Amino acid sequence: MFRARVVGAGVVLMCVMLLPTAAWAQTAVSGSIAGVVNDTSGAVLPGVTVEAASPALIENVRSVVTDGQGQYQIVELRPGTYTVTFTLPGFSRFRREGIELTAGFSAVVNAEMRVGDLAETVTVTGASPVVDIRNVRTQTVLSREILDVLPTGKATGGYASLIVGAVLSGPLGAMQDVGGNKGEQYGEIVIHGGRAGDGRMNFDGMTYNGMNASGGGANHYWTPNLVAVEEVGFETGGMSAEAESGGIHQNMVPKDGGNTFRPYFSGTGNTGALQGSNLTDELRSRGLQSESKIKHNFDVGVGLGGPIKRNKLWFYTAHRWWAAQEYYAGSYFNKNQGTSMIYGEDLSR
Questions:
Q1: CB burial of residue 275 (10 Å; 0-12, 13-18, 19+)
Q2: What is the CATH number for 210?
Q3: What digits encode the pLDDT tens for the residues 237-264?
């Protein structure tokens, strides 16, 4: 049965820097770095300049100053790897490297600065935080590397198999995707036995899914171009007060360009020849004469990102072409088509 065919339209994502932070989505779709700065005696240090540098930032570096309690917070940071540097006159510079940020993750980076020459720098590596102690939300974040490497479907439906307690529900009931055998499909991810329609689907924090009469909105009437996605975050519990429903909240973080040109290509396909069979003689004797099988599916995407003007304006364009067809068990052509009003199964088709 033909389920879906989409010729992916090009998606151009223009990332213009030096926008006010309010233009970006909230922390559920971006990361943050926060902490407290002390001297070697344990006293807090106000007025310390804290800089977060990363290739993920078009301005390269974003900085703040610690307050009277020695605390700081750098918000609305794009996912990526960061280096945090602490500077205060009369103290040695302190640097923390390899801070991995994902969407919705708040990294706690504290610093202990000692009196010394400004030319001295204390560098800490290999101690990046792995636990977010500032948020109570429960979430699963799938980076681009995970999406490309794991043997799952490169589609929204394939993500359900990577989330504990989640299943993909559709018009015909639960649909389990095994290694991409379903392809892109119409459906919604439900969590912990919840109600279909309670979820929300967002692209960089903006809701794009259709709303239905029951108040739900997980049905995706628009299929996202996954070639344009850098990572996908799923909130499954402890959502903020802004969440109007208790279902799974999915957010896709788009890819950005950069100061260097970067191509991307992905491709998968199957004609059903690689699919196994579990149709036994026992099942045939009980009336099941066929099984659901792949007719064919494929998913091809290409993307390109780079600078229009270094450190000022980037671009990213992504294109995707996919199709999925499947034979459903027990669904046959009508051999009496055009000759009788009585349906007759054509078991050869």
A1: middle
A2: 2.170.130.10
A3: 777 777 777 788 888 889 988 899 999 9
